[in-house]
Amino acid sequence: MNIAANLERSAFFFPDHPAISEGGIDTTYAQLNERANRVATALITLGIKPGHHVGLCAPNSTDWLAFYFGVLKSGAVAVTYSALLTSAELKLLVEHARPRFVLAGTERLGELEKLKSSAGLEKIICPDGDMDMAHLVNTGSGSFNALDRGRDDTAAILYTGGTTGIPKGVMLSHQNINVSAHNVAYSERSTENDRALCFLPFNHVFGQMHVMNATMLSAGCLEILPTFDLERVLEATGKGRITKLFAVPTVFTRLLTLENLRQKLGRVRYSFSAAASLPVEIIRQWTERAGFTISEGYGMTESASAVTYNHYYRHVVGSVGTPVHLVEVEIRDLKGNRLKQGEEGEICILGPNIMRGYLNNPEETRSVFWDDGWFRSGDIGVIDSDGYVFIVDRLKDMIITGGENVYPREVEEQLYARAEVAECAVIGLPDKEWGERVAAFIVPKQGQTVVPEEIKAFLKSRLSPFKVPKEYVSVSELPKSPAGKILKRELRKSVMEAKDAK
Q1: Are residues 78 and 49 located together in one domain of the fold?
Q2: How many domains does the chain have?
């Protein structure tokens, strides 16, 4: 098995069909497959072998896709990094996964050059690097079949965070990704005539698995943008090129501010929102104005995306749907006992979509699996009498802002580097635009003053933009348990109660 075979099949059946559209230029399936073949054979000539790690750290592009599938065809493992990582974050993750080669933008060249001695990095593929993409492609052969891999062999590593707030490399197998790609394509009734707009980063599970891999499987066309740009999104939909729109809640909220929404959407027949639950009112307004609903589901990096899907024909607002094919969902208590229908507990999952584990982190891997193999999601939910799953709350402290995951401890560790900070707690607060906004509550050291502008500037130099808190509150103390643990839920509760009292 090799998930790159999905590209080969689409190229066999629809060789002249556009696979990618970027900047008005279409790349057919035959062209994309040939380009991926050239990357694969060039990598093999350079010494890449099955199981070796090869990194990608660049914005969405045709080259990104060709390189990704070339890596997979060679039997290697694609390690995908966010293009927005700070230098410190990139160093941490590259040293963790130790890819032999990395595809990157020119702006990353200096940072990556410094890692050649400490991280086992051998070649940087970018303009002015060890070689550029054009050179790699020109040295390879256009004829090649993807190397066969075991279904449980790792195909890709995506970075996420967890209860510790430390990013972890999720190892997804060829089977994990294949199962999810098939489930997404089936659930969404995807066809070769669909054109899906994707501005979501390919390093993220939503962009890479749900959107990109499922589209390649169904032989549709990916119209890609490097980032979200409202003007370019409306240009694409307004010209009638797009049939499927994938976004996060903040984007749908912004689109609802537009007049003549239905006209601006053109031929869009389907929309899907991920990363955070949509308010029921937003779905209602969208359905009324667009003429079709916003579909939702439930998934995570560790499940290669799809766990449940809120059905194409029987959409239940407020739910994340029912389990997708081959995937089972149970609600369990914190001791691992299965609960009855209608009882709230932790959502646990079993299926061929669940990750192999966390790279070089057996302890954390063990902590998220029960002894019988069921995966612990860390989310609290309930299943109704029709089998629909509803998310109640999160066990984890993770904040989802604008579709991006923020892990409080990572932000707090940077805050503690400030001389004026005695204690701090980072939480997510409800926000109409972002879903949640990152807020920092700080107890200053005696005689010190918290100046939000100074702390914000400091954090911007150390963290990705979406991780930097939008709100800074100086407090005399933080709520704590008898053991001295900061009670973030109590903090969040008190903030909301104070807001309601105004």
Answers
A1: yes
A2: 3
Check whether residue 26 and residue 67 sit in a common domain: yes
- Residue-wise pLDDT tens for the chain (502 aa)? 999 999 999 999 999 999 999 999 999 999 999 999 999 999 999 999 999 999 999 999 999 999 999 999 999 999 999 998 889 889 999 999 999 999 999 999 999 999 998 888 999 999 999 999 999 999 999 999 999 999 999 999 999 854 344 669 999 999 999 999 999 999 999 999 999 999 999 998 999 999 999 999 999 999 999 888 899 999 999 999 899 999 987 788 789 888 899 999 999 999 998 876 666 777 888 999 999 999 999 999 999 999 999 987 888 888 899 999 999 999 999 899 999 999 989 999 999 999 999 999 999 999 999 999 999 998 888 999 999 999 876 666 778 888 887 878 788 878 988 989 888 899 999 998 888 999 999 999 888 999 999 999 999 999 999 999 999 999 999 887 544 567 888 898 888 888 777 6
Neighbour order of strands in the sheet with 154-160: 123-125, 101-104, 53-57, 77-80, 154-160, 168-173, 357-358
149 lies in the same domain as 30: yes
Answer yes or no: do 169 and 34 share one domain. Answer: yes
Q: Which domain holds residue 373?
A: 296-394
400: phi then psi, degrees, rounded to nearest 5: -110, 110
Q: Is residue 313 part of a domain?
A: yes
Which residues lie below 8 Å from residue 214, measured CB to CB, with a gap of 6+?
180, 181, 182, 184, 185, 188, 190
Q: What is the CATH number of the domain that holds 326?
A: 2.30.38.10
- Amino acid identity, residue 292? F
Same domain, 120 and 31: yes
- Is 69 domain-assigned? yes
45 and 164 in a single domain? The answer is yes
- Domain boundary residue, one of 394, 418, 441: 394
Phi then psi for residue 19, to 5 deg, are -95, -40
d(CA 213, CA 264): 27
Residue 310 to residue 491: CA distance in whole angstroms: 33
For 13, the enclosing helix (H) or strand (E) is helix 5-13
Q: Considering only CA atoms, which of 175, 163, 212 is closest in space to residue 358? A: 163
- CA–centroid distance for 202 within its chain: 8
User: Taking phi first (over 0 means left), then psi (-120 to 50 degrees means alpha), and beta for anything else, what does residue 367 get?
Assistant: alpha
Residues 29 and 144 in one domain: yes
Cα separation of 80 and 83, whole Å? 9
| CATH code (residue 72) | 3.40.50.980
pTM to 2 decimal places: 0.82
In this structure, the answer to whether residues 47 and 159 fall within a common structural domain is yes
Domain boundary among 344, 377, 394: 394
List % helix, strand, coil for the chain (3-state, nearest 5): 35, 25, 40
Alpha carbon separation from 83 to 55, 60, 173, 391, 474 (Å, rounded): 11, 9, 23, 30, 33
